[in-house]
Amino acid sequence: MLSLGRILKLEEMSDEANQRLIEALEVARKLRDDGTIGYALVANERHRQDPIDATLLLGEAVDHFRRAHDSIGLSWALHLYANSLWDDVLLGDQRLQEAVTVEEEVLVIARSIGADFTVVSAIGNIGILAFAMGDVDGGEEYSRQCLQTHRRMGEPNWQASCILYIFSYCAISRGDYHRGAQLFGAAQLLQEQFPPFAGFDWAAVEIQMIGAYGERLRDVLGEESFQREVSLGRTLTFDDVCRLALTRTR
User: Fold this and answer.
1) What domain range includes position 5?
2) What is the predicted pLDDT for the residue at 232?
3) Angstrom distance (rounded) from CA 29 to CA 27
4) Which of 72, 101, 178, 188 has its CA 20 to 30 A from that of 172?
């Protein structure tokens, strides 16, 4: 039922998909198998619109994975739980430090089982969270580690655009507006080219940050200069963008 629910969701048959996923969770609970319940909870969370409900489901999934001693499920559920805390920020639920603590546990578990994708995702999220809490240096350092990994992989994905936005914000915070605008343009292009894969999306707070920092650049540089620098950033190759991001000029 879990697989059927996911397929139906991908085909945008959301009502039937949600029903199948709910049924899968009910069956899992009857089986009283912690691992199965955990995966069913995660599958249901991925299709919830209310971030508060999603956080509750993921918190329960984490408990079941701990009891099942399922490191793979636990690392992923914890990572999604940290994401849900980040999603809650605009609702007044300021739990950024808790999200960092959760992602640090994710790193320990993911490294122990060789889950490289989860490791790089957690590192990137810690960078975003650190910046959001006002730690520009910390945000940039974690983002540097994340981007270097993406560069070694040879091609960007949707998370690389998130990280480039953080590099842009760090440059802006230091008054390096022209470089910040170029990075902003590069991040913007990647955002358009690599949409999040199924079950992920941009958090409301991230969308708000993009708008706020874009306006700040316009105010400082003026519309013409802003557009010129952003356009330049959009013409750079990924390798050139990485060099620009990883070489601080101020």
Assistant:
1) 1-110
2) 97
3) 5
4) 101
